[in-house]
Design brief:
This protein has helices at about 10-30, 35-40, 50-60; strands at about 40-45, 50, 65, 70. The protein is α+β, with helices and mostly antiparallel strands and about 70 residues long. The model has no long low-confidence stretch (mean pLDDT about 90). Helix 1 crosses helix 3. The strands form two sheets. Strands 1-2 form a two-stranded antiparallel ribbon.
Length: about 70
């Protein structure tokens, strides 16, 4: 998952886990602007984008993410 190289996943959980790990790594290395996080990173579901914060909220509701950590 680098730049415009999309990753194909078989489930939302798999996609969110990949997204979350990539975003966390980029934030920890100071290599990700908030504008990019908010506008250029998403999970595509049925052709529609689910941007990071909405994906995060869905992951929390599904029990994939708790207290800022993957479960």
């Amino acid at each position: 998952m680098e730049g415009d190289k999309p990753v194909k996943c078989s489930s939302f959980e798999e996609a969110f886990t990949a997204m979350f790990k990539w975003v966390t790594d980029k934030i920890n290395s100071n290599d990700l602007a908030l504008q990019v996080l908010e506008t250029a990173i998403w999970i595509e579901i049925n052709g529609l984008p689910l941007y990071f914060y909405d994906a995060r909220d869905r992951a929390i509701k599904m029990g994939i993410l708790k207290d800022g950590k993957l479960v």
